[in-house]
Amino acid sequence: MKLVDHFETGLDAPICLTWELTYACNLACVHCLSSSGRRDPRELDTAQCRAVIDELQRMQVFYVNIGGGEPTVRSDFWELVEYATDHQVGVKFSTNGVRLSPERAQWLAGSDYVDVQISLDGATAAVNDAVRGPGSFATAMRAMGNLAEAGFRDFKISVVMTRQNVDQLDDFAAIADSFDAQLRITRLRPSGRGADVWDELHPTAAQQRQLYDWLVAHGEGVLTGDSFFHLNALGSTPLPGLNLCGAGKVVCLIDPVGDVYACPFAIHEQFLAGTVRAPGGFTEVWRNSPLFADLRRPTSAGTCSSCPSFDSCRGGCMAAKFFTGLPMDGPDPECVQGHGELALATAGAPPRPSADHSRRKPVPVSIGFGRPADRACDTSPLAGMR
Amino acid sequence: MIDPTRPYRRAPQVALRPEPFGALVYHFGTRRLSFLKTRQLAEVVATLEDNADVDSTLDSVGVAPDQRAAYLRALAGLADAGTIQPRER
């Protein structure tokens, strides 16, 4: 049995576990995979988070990828990081940089067990801020400067590849070099709010070729989280990585309320495996949930079975198919052979999201003159003067 | 390179997790994940520290004579990657 076959049938514990600690976020990125914004009142509290960490330690999950939302806005965030690393669970956390002060950067640089990943979706403020919001480029650059200044080597700069930033790949690499950081690029998914902007943001077919060539040229030097294996059908050089959809096999997600999903890009009831709050906790969900058992069974290639590229691309990304309304046993919407576009032409309506923590958009209400009230109930003449 | 007459140990920053195929190896310093592809090799790595040297570790785990050369090559690779390291006698 080859190593990769063991991964197909599932391991005793995940290799790559993502844990979103909160849906609260100071930003409102247009492509947010978890539709974050508002804190969920059912969020796991500090004690419950510690219990999850204890369990990860027992399962020997070496490290956890913490995200959100913006995880650092939790008041107990640094305490939880410390608790995890004290219990042999390494932490890599993703942040927009809002809380990475010079002092905090010093603290982080002092730990061997913490890695930091700064999100940046444009190599210029114009490209970045169009997706992540005004001021977010400056915030990220300041945070990276603080990390570099503190001597934190090899932190990650994480870029979601879009139609607007594929041409900036060399610029991203230069930014990473300038901070002694490592570049990580990942695939845009039509998950969360990503579904709303997918049509405008996902790379064109020509850009996919550009991306593949760039990845082949840069090899192991750039991290991808294995997210571009659907591009393998473009050439004979396989991209580094496992080349499989790891959902429920080696990957899963714990969301802020403790729900366990098959992968971070699949926050939808169809991929909900259970909750860490139930008896048996996360271990029980990982080892015995019917959904994960199903994902670990060999699947049919479906309409892709006659395609000579199937062995290279493996049908692509489950979440990308699901959220564009395509069947699981068919081509990826970005299939490099063009089968995805054909399938999309006849696909049904994409599924509706089953959770959304986006901040409600302010509804501009004008009652004749002056500025609108801060809140619907805010009728004081001093509203807006604080 | 590895000297089978010397004592070795799993590096302190390395964690091993037994799996059906062997073991997962994680190095907290380099943050790299790797794999040991047999259970027996995982046992060798885990018990290096309990034995006087590499040779006696292979004996105690019961590595077959015709497998020894392959195991020493694998261990040399693990030493290069920083997974295992010489320890003081």
TrEMBL record, chain A:
Annotated segments matching region Disordered: 346-386
NCBIfam families for the chain: mycofact_rSAM, rSAM_more_4Fe4S
EC number of this enzyme: 1.3.98.7, 4.1.99.26
GO molecular function: 4 iron, 4 sulfur cluster binding; catalytic activity; metal ion binding
Gene3D superfamilies recorded: Aldolase class I
Protein name (database record): Mycofactocin maturase MftC
InterPro entries attached to this UniProt entry: 4Fe4S-binding_SPASM_dom, Aldolase_TIM, Heme_synthase-like, MftC, PqqE-like, Radical_SAM_PqqE_MftC-like, rSAM, rSAM_sf
SUPFAM superfamilies named among the record's database cross-references: Radical SAM enzymes
Short name of any one Pfam family annotated for the protein: SPASM
Cofactor(s) required for function per UniProt: [4Fe-4S] cluster
Key word 4Fe-4S present: yes
Ranges where the Radical SAM core domain occurs: 11-221
PROSITE patterns per UniProt: RADICAL_SAM
Signal peptide: none
Keyword terms of this UniProt record: 4Fe-4S, Iron, Iron-sulfur, Lyase, Metal-binding, S-adenosyl-L-methionine
Taxonomic source organism: Kutzneria buriramensis
Reaction equation(s) it catalyzes: [mycofactocin precursor peptide]-C-terminal glycyl-L-valyl-L-tyrosine + S-adenosyl-L-methionine = [mycofactocin precursor peptide]-C-terminal glycyl-N-{[2-(4-hydroxyphenyl)ethenyl]-3-methylbutanamide} + 5'-deoxyadenosine + L-methionine + CO2; [mycofactocin precursor peptide]-C-terminal glycyl-N-{[2-(4-hydroxyphenyl)ethenyl]-3-methylbutanamide} + AH2 + S-adenosyl-L-methionine = [mycofactocin precursor peptide]-C-terminal glycyl-N-{5-[(4-hydroxyphenyl)methyl]-4,4-dimethyl-2-oxopyrrolidin-3-yl}acetamide + 5'-deoxyadenosine + L-methionine + A + H(+)
Automatic annotation (TrEMBL), chain B:
Pfam family, one: MftB_chaperone
Protein name: Putative mycofactocin binding protein MftB
Species for this entry: Kutzneria buriramensis
